[in-house]
Write a structure and sequence with these properties.
237 residues; alpha+beta; Alpha-Beta Plaits; four-stranded mixed β-sheet; four-stranded antiparallel β-sheet
Amino acid sequence: MSVFQFLRKVFRKRRRRWRRAIWSTSILAAAMILIWSGQTLKDQMNMLLTGSGHEEPLALETMHYLQIEEEKQEERTHEQRKFMQELNASKGKKKVHLRTTYVCGVEEQNIGRLNADGIYELMNTNPLWQGRLDDKGEVWLEQTVSDLSPNCKEQAYMSVDASGNLTLFEGPPEEEKVLRTFFQLDLGSMESSLPKDVIRQLQEGIRIQDMDEYNSVLSTFSDYARDMAENVMKPSS
């Protein structure tokens, strides 16, 4: 069995456990709702709106969460409005760049020189793009993509760095071109639980070519993430 066959098998088992846990939780929640629904609708609404004891009401907690999301959206809208105002106030054509941020990797592309109308046409065609002007007066259109960049698909490896951290490298690990560090591994527990071939392959570097492989490796080794609390020194007696 290859390393990826093993990792995918572990990932599929974990995913099935997650599904069973979700179904079990849903059934339990449904039963609790049926029991709780013995109260009158008036009592339920009163509990949601006023809470009980000293606890914050559930409805207010939900409203607080929605308020935070709304504030984030308002901030993005404000930034876009500011960008458009600055763009409208400018004259002539501007150098335009497209910056794409991936789960692994960032790519920048020079689109060319466009006037305000051309920039707006691009943004209307791609409504998720965010625009900004840099200090040189050049326009940057930015997007986020939930995938590996083409460069990462060709060169990314998952391995362990010198400090024992699960790390994503550009190229073989020995070149030490770190793209991203995830968490410190409990190497002792990992070596006693996983097949030797998997440990050896991780040390040499596991080639990552797509999001399925990325998620499989990350999910499997997250079970061996060292608790940061273990690294905190206890006060001397």
